[in-house]
Each structure stands twice: as structure tokens, then as C-alpha cells.
Amino acid sequence: MPRSRLVVLSTTLLLALGCGGSAPSGSASPSPTAAPAEAPLANGVYVSPSGSDADPGTMSRPLRSIEAGLARLRPGLVLVLLDGTWKLAGPVVVRLKGTPDAWVEVRGARGTTPTLDASAVDIPWAEAYPWVQGAVQVEGSSYLRIRNLHVRSSHLAGFNVAGSDHVDILNCSSRGSFASGISAWQGVSDLRLLGDTVTGANDMSLSFRPFTGTEAPHEAISVAGVQRFEVAWNEVAANKKEGIDVKETAAHGVVHHNHSHDNDRQGLYVDAWFGVLEDVELHHNAVHDNEVGVAVSAEDGPLTRDVRIHHNLVFDNRASGLYFSRWGKDNPREAIVVTNNTFYRNGYGRSPDGDPAYWLSGGLYLHSTNLSAVTVRDNVFAFDKPFEIGYSGDYGSGGPGSRVAIEHNLVRDVNTTVFPFYMATWAKDYVWSTTGREAILGDPQFVDATAQDFRPRPGSPANGVGALDAGSVLDPWWKQGFPPEIP
Fold it and tell me: Which CATH number fits the domain that encloses residue 62?
């Protein structure tokens, strides 16, 4: 998608929330349920669970089936789902082509919660790759916007996008799915996933058919091989695997202002497969109470490169705050820049005092040795266990040297760990600790970390590093009317 399309939306929401994603004290993000009911649309086709397909499809005489409404859509028309629940008999397959000047839109009526109950649907598995089907299946579509639709209890994905371009999924939700809540794949471009909610994804109990695998497929939000994308302002919580995964050959995209929390695995994940993954930016996300906070891998891809990770709050994750993994084949990662993030109280396992036998831990763990041109600068690492910045003993006691530039980070290390520390339970790695060059050693003096207020107090040594400055207006955007309504 053109970069201008990303910037316009981001700027609009930032202005709504306050400059820099922080609203003035006492203000709240706009809520998708706060808007007044809408007047009938001249270009609208209406459906309702209480309607009839023999009716004309007006607001007062709506159609009943979503499929009948879809069949009437043309560029510039809007299919409006009125309030209620559709008990699906099969997946809703959307094949619609709008134009750059006349998008096609499928959406719930403003101020309502149209729900698609997929609990009775045996979604057909694709022969080549069985998990890329959804209760709402978008394929062969262009210039399509889906807004304010809500899927529950899908036996594969909630929403799935394949072979399409210029697709928006806005203020939708997937609550309970065997595969991803929202997914998009190779052959998809110019995708926006904004203001959505995904919970209960990757739930083995939701497999409709006998399933012999050891884990459910994919992640809560899976962006796999997509070219040009924006994933922002989403609530991704209480899922059985990873939160948001940018993977395979995905390129030219941004993941920002997401609240990824209480997931069983990584909050944010970047990993290559099939080919090169490149040009991905992760910024201004709140990531907490997951297993790993943020992980960067190359798994079965030849290279992950040009990843920028900045201004994220990564805190209270059970394992590492930021992990450079050896998962898969430990293939190369290069040109990874990690700046102005705050990493706080990661690596405690499931114990409030820290679990030295936990499988993976630390503020930043450089487990992979297949790294080059990696920069870690101007971050805050504070009160992580059992080390703040650690690297594999396979580098040797001299550390990663010029391949990883660790410089000018504030480090508050209260650990008493003796290094090298042997991580015996899974990594089976001797870990050394470093503060890097020109480290600022001191307490960041957060205003109130227990209340997720990570602003440093005036005079703190953390001013100028980390994700927030003392002059920032406090507004934890992820707590107030989140996700916001997307304009």
C-alpha cells in the first residue's frame, strides 16, 4: 500500500488520542459503540437475521442471508449487517472487487454488534495447506473494507485473507478459533488490520475434526508473506500461542500501537520462512504478561533483515523481554535496530521473585550467534531476571563484538547472578552479561511502574532513553476505550 495511506490513518488516530499517542488527561479514545445510530444509506444493502431474502434489502425490509447481500454488491456499495447473530451453516466467502475510487464495504451497522457464530461450521481444509481458511474467507478481492463484524467459535480461522489486495479489516473481532483469529498469506498485498480484537485463538479444543497435531496452527494474528501492511490499534489477548506474528516473506509493513498481552507465547514475533523477510517496523506497542515479549527469528527462511524495533513498552513477560532466537535453523538476521524501548521486569517465570530454572529469561537475550549489523541503543533495561542484557557463551567471553553494537542504554541491574550463568532447562547455554558501551547505570525512577506508568521522573537518568520521557503526557492508550473506532 502507498506509505501515505499508512501515515494518514496513523496521524488521524494520533490526533484523536493526543500527540504521540497520548491524549490529554481525562480524555478517552473514541469507542466503536459510542457513535449514534446511522440513517439509511442510499448505497446500502441491508441484511438481518430476522429479514427475508424475498425482501428488497432496505433498512426497513432487509435481506436475511449474508450471501444474498454479497451477491448484490458492486463498487461503491455497502452491505450493512443489522444487529443480531447469524448461526452460520458454512463459511462466508467474500469475492468482491471495488476500485481505488469506489471501495466495496461489508460492515456492521454503527453502534451494533453483528455476530457470526461459526460453531456448527465444518470449514473445508484446503488440500495444499489446510489451515488457510476462515469463517469469513476473503479471496480474489480488491479494494474491500470489512468493518465491525464479529466472529466466534471458528473451527479454523476467524477471518482469513488469500489472493487479494487493498483489504481493510477494521474494528472486527474473533473470539475463539482453532487457527488464527485473523490471517493473511502469500499473494496478499496492501493490507490493514486496525482496531480489531482477537482472543481465544489457537485453541485445540475448537478443532472440528480429529486432530493429531501437538499444537493448533499459526498465531492469533498471522501476517504471512504479505507485501505492504499495517497492523495497528489491535487488542490481542488470552490466546493459546503467539499474539502477532509477521512471518514468511512479509515485507514493507508496520506493527504499531497494539496491546498484546496475556498470550501463552510471544507477544510480538518476527520470523522468516520460505524466503527473505525484510523492512518491518515495530513501534509504540504495549507488550506484557506473555511468554517472550518480542522475538526475532529466521526459522526456515534464509534471512531476516531491516527490522526496526522502537518505542515499545515490554514488561512483566514471563520469559525474555527481547529474544534473538535459535528456533528453526537459526538462520541470519542483519540490520536489526532496537532503540528507545523500555524493558522492565521480564524473565521472572511464574514466580514474583524470579525462577532461576525458568526455560528462557532476561531483559535481552542474544541466544543466536548468527547476527550482524544489530544495534541496541538508548533503551531502558530495568529489574529483569536473571540478567538485563545477556549473550550466548558461544560468542566467547569477549561477547558479540562488532556484530552487535550495544551502547548508551540505561541499565538497572539488581541481580546477583554469577556469570557465566547456565540456562539448563531448555537453551542449555552458558550466558554472559554485559552493559555495553557508554551505559547509564542507575535507577530509571519511573513514576509508577506498578500502574504501568513508565515515564521517568524529572531528573531521572532515563530521560532521553527508553520509550517515554518525563515530559510525556500520561495516557495509557491501551486502557481507555481500546481498541478505538477507526475512521
Answer: 2.160.20.10
